[in-house]
Predict the structure.
Amino acid sequence: MPASLPFRSALVTGASSGIGQAMVQQLANAGVPTVAVARRGDRLQLLAESYPSVSPLVADLETDAGVDAVAARVADGVDLVVNNAGFGTSGKFYELDPGRLDREVALNVRALTRLSHAALAAMAPVGRGYLLNVSSVVSFQPAPGLAVYAATKAYVTSLGESLHEEARGTGVHVTTLCPGLTRTEFISVSNSSGYQDSYPEFAWMDADQVAACGLRDVARGKALSVPGVLYKAMSTAVGVTPRGLARRLSGLVQRT
């Protein structure tokens, strides 16, 4: 992480664990007052006790009330907004609980869209601000076995790149963070714990690395942030691989 960051204040969703928690800690260590958003108030309280510059905001972003509360806080004026909250569901699409899939889309797409809108509506008129949306490398290709998650992240990446161009010249920076395999609670929440044994150690990153990369790249005004040499190469290769082949290869990987 850079020795200093240009943010005067920040708000991070999904702040109670993983990449979101790492971002809150790094921002706090850099002296940036940060609003930490999550459903688990006990974990947010522990963060606030460890870092005096952290303010907890308990909100369930799968609900209208939760999204409204966070959007209102963003509208009050925050220099950096990080949309990190999200989850996935692993398995064959037709066997999965449709209610869970609805919640997945609501959080990964609907809440992120609303908070991105609130951020840009507050930032563009003053000509300053940073929006960092957390997507995934799976957004660049189909992901059989994680079909809905990959589809939601494809939306996040497409939206982010579009907003990056819309904001060009306004003083507002929009960056989409696309991490690869990262050791977080996502693995257990998405019912994909088997992935830990299916991929070699070098393919995994830790949350601190990913968080530092995202914060650095949004400060620099990059459109896309892909942590790690391996995943940078993979994202480039996907762009030149025929879609049919990419789809088949992805399906084979999910079966290993």
